[in-house]
Automatic annotation (TrEMBL):
Source organism phylogeny: Eukaryota, Rhodophyta, Florideophyceae, Rhodymeniophycidae, Gracilariales
Protein name: Pyruvate, phosphate dikinase
UniProt KW RNA-binding keyword: no
GO molecular function, one term: ATP binding
Regions annotated as coiled coil: none
UniProt keyword terms in alphabetical order: Kinase, Pyruvate, Transferase
Keyword Ribosomal protein: no
InterPro entries xref list: ATP_grasp_subdomain_1, Pyruvate_phosphate_dikinase
Originating species: Gracilariopsis chorda
Length: 196
């Protein structure tokens, strides 16, 4: 099997994602993808991908309706940590190419105010315990994209609640700003608006 499959081959549909194998994980790539009935990786790669991603990849390969997504190989996270927050060469371009694949599959674009792509950032381990890992939902929402979410959903409260959750999670997980600060502010505004 050819282990030099590139994401550009995958994007042009020249090579099915399901044809990948473990040897690719030794080639210096940091991001792998799944979606649309294909997957890079499978259930046997829990040690490399983490339990959650390995399961999603396997379900996607079986043809189950799994939302497409890129996932970082844990080695990339380890290298970023080891290098004091600096990305290893190629990581940013790997992420950008994987997001491009997700955009192609969904018809949405990350940061686009008219058809925004929203993604979840989840941590994972070989044996995942629900509720114990950090998570950021709705990455891609901002002052502009939230208006489109409101239009698409037809629900003002849902759209802004989703945006609020994103800000809370990002502040807590990425910035270390304790969750209760957001909850206190939100409670005061809801009380003022007579929503409680």
């Amino acid at each position: 099997m050819n282990t030099a499959i590139t994401l550009s081959n995958l994007l042009s549909n020249q090579v099915p994602l399901a044809m990948t194998d473990k040897s690719q994980f030794k080639q210096g790539r940091y991001v792998y993808s799944f979606g649309n009935g294909n997957a890079e990786g499978n259930e046997e790669m829990r040690a490399v991908l983490g339990g959650k991603v390995a399961g999603l990849a396997q379900m996607s390969a079986f043809g189950l309706p799994v939302p497409p997504g890129p996932h970082d190989y844990h080695r990339a996270v380890h290298l970023v940590s080891k290098q004091g927050g600096n990305y290893p060469p190629g990581l940013e371009s790997n992420v950008a190419k994987s997001l491009l694949m997700v955009e192609k599959l969904t018809g949405a674009r990350f940061g686009n105010a008219h058809r925004p792509l929203l993604v979840s950032v989840r941590s994972g381990a070989r044996a995942s315990v629900p509720g114990m890992m950090d998570i950021v939902l709705n990455l891609g929402l901002n002052d502009h994209t939230v208006r489109e979410l409101e239009t698409q959903s037809g629900d003002h409260r849902f759209a802004y609640d989703s945006y609020c959750r994103f800000i809370q999670m990002f502040g807590d997980v990425m910035m270390g700003f304790d969750h209760h600060h957001f909850a206190d502010i939100l409670h005061k505004h809801k009380k003022f608006a007579d929503l409680l």
